[in-house]
Amino acid sequence: MNFKVYVILAFSLFWSAPIQENPDLIGKWQLVYFDGIEQIRQSSRYRNAPAEAKQDMEYRIANRLENTVYEFMEEDSLVFTDYGQKGIVQKRVKFEVGEDQVLHIFEENQTRKAKIIELTENRLVLEPISESGVLGKLIFEPWVKPEE
């Protein structure tokens, strides 16, 4: 084989390899912080709410954080919990990470996007992206099985 064939073969292997093979991304991630929660807590509606309503909101916030887990699997599968009209549901979807470090999550009728701001073995920071722009920061840490 001549040199051109080797170059073409190497180039095609590089471009066909999934970008999401980053070992730091693969695994289970627990949501520990969402700055949208702080916006809620700083709102006048929350601050002026009766103690019982605040307690209910704090329960919902804790429940949301506790139950938001993303599990990135080898290749391109992602299993995550989501909140629907019927409560907490688990979804299995496809994902990919573009060269621009944008995570694309392919659901049935839509594609969710989030910029990967930070990715280490102990921390994943995402900024969800919508048509109106960036929607805050989501901070994840490696999932730890709850003690029974």
How is this structure best summarized?
The chain is an alpha+beta fold. The chain contains four helices and nine strands.
Note down, in words, how this protein is organized.
- InterPro entries: Lipocalin-like (IPR024311).
- Pfam families: Lipocalin_4.
- The chain has a single domain, classed as Beta Barrel (Lipocalin).
- The protein contains four helices and nine strands.
- It has helices at residues 3-16, 35-42, 44-47, 51-67; strands at 27-34, 69-72, 77-84, 87-97, 102-106, 111-120, 123-130, 133-134, 138-142.
- Strands 1-2-3-4-5-6-7-9 form an eight-stranded antiparallel beta barrel.
- The longest helix has 17 residues, at 51-67.
- Residues 1-21 have low confidence and may be disordered.
Features:
4 helices, eight-stranded antiparallel barrel, alpha+beta, 148 residues, Lipocalin
CATH architecture: Beta Barrel
Query: How confident overall, as mean pLDDT?
Result: 81
Strand order within the widest beta sheet: 1-2-3-4-5-6-7-9
Number of helices: 4
Radius of gyration: 19 Å
- Binned, the helix content reads 25-40%
- Using the coordinates shown, work out and report the CATH topology: Lipocalin
Number of strands: 9
- N-C termini distance: 61 Å
CATH class label: Mainly Beta
Strand content: 35-45%
Secondary-structure element string: HEHHHEEEEEEEE
Unreliable spans are: 1-21
Class computed from helices, strands and strand pairing: alpha+beta
Q: Please tell me the total number of domains.
A: 1
InterPro entries: Lipocalin-like
Pfam family, one: Lipocalin_4
Domain Lipocalin-like: 25-126
Protein name: Lipocalin-like domain-containing protein
